[in-house]
Amino acid sequence: MRDPEGFWGEAAQAIDWYEPAKKVFDPASGIYGRWFSGGVCNTCYNALDRHVAGGRANQTALIYDSPVTKTKAAYSYAELLAEVKTLAAMIADFGVGKGDRVILYMPMIPEAVMAMLACARIGAVHSVVFGGFAAKELATRIDDAKPKLILSASCGIEPGRVVTYKPLLDEAIRLANYKVPSCMILQRPQAQAEMTAGRDHDWASLHAKAKKENKTADCVPVAATDPLYILYTSGTTGIPKGVVRDNGGHMVALKWSMKNLYGVDPGEVYWCASDVGWVVGHSYIVYGPLLHGCTSILYEGKPVGTPDAGAFWRVISEHGAVALFTAPTAFRAIKKEDPKGEFIGKYDLSKFRALFLAGERADPDTIKWAENLLKVPVIDHWWQTETGWCIAGNPMGLGMLPVKHGSPTVPMPGYQVDIVDEASKPVPANKMGSIVVKLPMPPACLPTLWEQDERFKESYLAEFPGYYKTADAGYKDDDGYVYVMGRTDDIINVAGHRLSTGGMEEVLSSHQDVAECAVMGIKDELKGEVPCGFVVLKAGVNRPPADIEKEIVALVREKIGPVAAFKLAITVKRLPKTRSGKILRGTMKKIADGDEWKMPATIDDPAVLDEIGVALKEKGVGGGA
Ligand code: COA
Ligand code: AMP
User: Fold this and answer.
1) Which residue among 414, 433, 454, 539 has its CA within the 20 to 30 Å range from the CA of 526?
2) Which residues contact 200 (CB under 8 A, 6 or more apart)?
3) To the nearest whole percent, how much of the chain has pLDDT over 70?
């Protein structure tokens, strides 16, 4: 905090630059300043080429472990580089160059990682869309990013179900106003995608041709401040926010974090069990481990059911992983199936040193369960799509601080985390408030939203002048430990997946029979939170409410995707409101969760809350039951 430029300037020496930055931090450029202005670099070069040149050519860079297809593969740094060079040339053949966007709608296969790196290699900006999102969500992203090319595959594989991607992609392209010129589709053996003549191209044929012709693409030098990727995340409306990540600051912060935060050395095996569609997957399946010269594991499977609750221990022992990073929900799933941790004893976890959790609040019970059985430190750390890496954590590499259950520990270098009241005034220790980060944000954090500077300022910088608003609420204790208790906006975390209840309300309202609705996240033992939607039907609708509820559930799945896990729609006569007409979502949530609640002083008609309780009870939900 005393000398950010000195600190990050030194950290930047761990990265190879074509030209070093003219200024480590330039307060005059960008919205709140930019890191490493004037620097010229290439992220793919730092993730692959320099390791091959520096003696890691034969070290495994990527292990693909896929219980859902019963396949495994490994790529050395030299092999991964060769594949990425070819793929980069294939992408460039579509006229894609520096600054052009490429959307990836792909399952967890090595080609997804290669595609991200191939885009980085030629200076193209990738935007990965998670496979659990439906056509409409993909269409919104297409319209915003305007990609020259979309890379996709014929299917993803969920336990017991093949998810065909191509019909979703075709529908998204049909829904989008922007016309996508080209798609390159990888046919997987589990499903055959139908190709649209003139637009769709077969990945394997182009690959074979490029290999035969020995086509490769070199690294294109880009500005440190040029975008590496756009990652869309849920915002407070149905329109997702295009979080922009730059090249230079991102590399510096991620490389620094591998040793200092995760305590991992180059050459070691690091496993992040997330999905490349999420920020955690971007940072710690792909970029972080490869920038650091580690072996990264790409796991196409689940914590349970593929085939059992020992899956994670099997992967750790088989590949010798020293660290695992996943979401608490994955551990709750394992704990539910194997409460005594009997599977753990079946595997050799001797190399395993630490478990890292993020993506949602880590409940102390799950942490304690993991600590007792794994006998390694279990480290909760807090971050957001916007930051790209950890805001508060426990730095293994620098020297671990005592763990306090329920807290992700302390702010990482570069983050001045304050807890403030509505007037932006810091509140005393142990008092709840809005969690904000003093500007400037450290390297890797978003400089803006894609082509939406004003929305960036309005969403993050306007409410607390001089600060970045995290939209999380919490407090700091007397030792400066941060406690993150929940969001201040409409975002909920379902099984570690970030979703907007506002977006769901838009879908519910679009049903012909719905007059008004309210969606909120309610407690769930496995997923942390799940959405629950209350609907009031239009006057004169006399179809059975159960039929309408089923249609609403199907509609959310169709419009947002299965990942929304929206399974609970409840018809009520009216919604509880304040006298000024604001829906009392907070009180409804408390009733559903079985938490203590007080009658809001401003309520219009207290009887409505009893009706909500009865409706919940009829569905057998939480506190209503
Ligand atoms: N493509 C298509 N569908 C997908 C998908 C994908 N990539 N990922 C999830 N889905 C579907 C699931 O099949 C499920 O469908 P269903 O309603 O037909 O059952 C639905 O989306 C909800 O998925 P999810 O919330 O993940 O629940 P689950 O019951 O399938 O699995 C867990 C529960 C806990 C095992 C799983 O959520 C998990 O492993 N979570 C780890 C979280 C994580 O990696 N978070 C990233 C941030 S660190
Ligand atoms: P995402 O952008 O998907 O990573 O989600 C970010 C949000 O997830 C944060 O704003 C928090 O609300 C929540 N979150 C992530 N990690 C943690 C954590 N360790 N503890 C509490 N909440 C977390």
Assistant:
1) 433
2) 182, 183, 184, 185, 193
3) 99
Query: Which DSSP state fits 460?
Result: I
Burial of 124 (0-12, 13-18, 19+ CB in 10 A): buried
The DSSP 8-state label assigned to residue 188 in this structure reads B
The predicted-structure confidence for 122-132, as pLDDT tens digits, reads as follows: 999 999 999 99
> And the tokens for 411?
């702010």
Beta bridge partners, 571, equal: 535
Q: What is the mean pLDDT of residues 113-121?
A: 99
CATH number of the domain located at residue range(s) 495-624 in this protein? 3.30.300.30
Dist. CA 40 → ligand 1 center (Å): 39
- Give distance in angstroms: CA of 358 to centre of ligand 2: 7
CA of 218 to the centre of ligand 1 (A): 37
DSSP 28: T
What are the start-end ranges of the H helices in 23-134? 43-44, 50-51, 77-92, 110-121
Per residue in 78-92, pLDDT tens? 999 999 999 999 999
Amino acid sitting at position 586: G
Question: What's the half-sphere exposure (Cβ side, CA atoms, 13 Å) at 465?
Answer: 1
Ligand nearest to the CA of 486: 2
Q: Report the alpha-carbon distance of residue 176 to residue 403 in Å, rounded.
A: 48
Q: Is 404 left (phi over 0), alpha (psi -120 to 50) or beta?
A: beta
| Phi, psi angle pair for 360, to nearest 5° | -165, 170
Comparing C-alpha atoms, which of 154, 90, 165, 174 is closest to residue 131? Answer: 165
Strands of the 410-411 sheet, one edge to the other: 382-383, 390-393, 410-411
Average pLDDT on 257-271 reads 98
The identity of residue 552, as a single letter, is I
Distance in Å, CA 360 to ligand 2 centroid? 5
- Tell me if the bond preceding 440 is cis, omega within 30° of 0: yes
Distance (Å, rounded) from C-alpha 579 to C-alpha 2? Answer: 50
Atom of ligand 2 nearest to the CA of 496: 3
| Bridge-based pairing state of the strands 23-26 and 34-37 | antiparallel
Picking from 565, 575, 577, 623, the residue whose alpha carbon sits closest to that of residue 604 is: 577
Q: What is the pLDDT of residue 238?
A: 64
Burial label, 89 (beta-carbon count in 10 A; 0-12, 13-18, 19+)? buried
Ligand 1 atom closest to the CA of 563, numbered from 1: 21
What residues does each domain of the chain span? Answer: 495-624
pLDDT band of residue 622 (cuts 50, 70, 90) is: low
Question: Using a 6 Å CB cutoff, which residues line ligand 2?
Answer: 233, 279, 358-362, 380-385, 408, 470, 472, 484, 487, 493, 498
CB distance 193 to 164 below 8 Å: yes
- CB-CB contact of 62 with 298 (8 Å): yes
77 within 8 A of 57, measured Cβ to Cβ: yes
Q: What percent of the chain has pLDDT over 90?
A: 95
pLDDT at 219 over 50: yes
Name the closest-CA residue to atom 37, ligand 1.
495
> What distance in Å separates the CA atoms of residue 625 and residue 610, rounded to the nearest whole number?
12
Of all atoms in ligand 1, which is nearest to the CA of residue 272? 48
- Residue 80 CA to residue 113 CA, distance in Å, equals 10
Instruction: Provide the 3-class DSSP secondary structure of residue 515.
Output: strand
**Hey, which residues does 158 pair with through a beta bridge?**
161
Distance CA(67)–CA(593), nearest Å, equals 36
State the CB neighbour count (10 A cutoff) for residue 428: 10
Average pLDDT, rounded, for the chain? 96
